[in-house]
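idk why but the lab printer keeps eating my pages so im just putting this in chat instead. protein + 6-phosphogluconic acid:
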Amino acid sequence: MEIKIYPSRLEVAQHFSEFFSDLIRSGEEVHIALSGGSTPMVVFEELAEHYRERIPWARVHLYWGDERCVPPVHEESNYGLCAERLLSQIDIPAENIHRIKGEDPPALEAGRYAAMLGEMLPRKYRLPRFDLVMLGLGEDGHTASIFPHEIKLWDSRNYCEVATHPVTGQKRITISGKVINNAANIAFLATGAAKAEKVKEILQQQGNYKNLPASKVSPRSGELYWFLDREAAREII
Ligand code: 6PG
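predcted complex ->
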């Protein structure tokens, strides 16, 4: 595990974007699962502004680690945010964008997306393998859309599950723990003081960490990176 701490959210985005770009240099097709929420917004803007020509987007396949069960044009759509801030700004083939169809019946879409992952992704240890899974950290210790009250979804035998937001009841589609931990690389991005307590609990294995889905992230590859700003890291520095 490598913990990278930068002074600001923007610098987190800048350094993560360089890390993202370096991963793609391999020359092969690269399969990346994006995270949702607001943190990635600044990353998408950085990639759109400074990596439009620097990344061979035709070799990049983009997926989502989770999606809200809303239409793609809905303000809460993870795909919609990415389309607005990044996809509309770069020359990436439409067939390389593998969005979760939040507008479709959740259980059906979870099954469809799981089957697609099984077909599209390279395999390792008999499981679909992303080259990179990008994850955010919720203030309650959730990651992707696996929340503490449904932590059992982490150990699902399925590649994807239907989850429920604990406060709003909103349905979500999420990839499961075995797909997340089979990734070649996992990058957590967490910024802001509101994440500091959970960052400390998880990284120092304190308090209630065993009941936090984010503490179950432990890639078999060993390649786990935390990109933090000073505020999110303030309890561990
Ligand atoms: C989502 C995410 C979720 C997110 C965290 C952090 O769909 O909301 O995938 O896991 O990464 O909730 O969200 P923020 O970046 O908005 O704090």
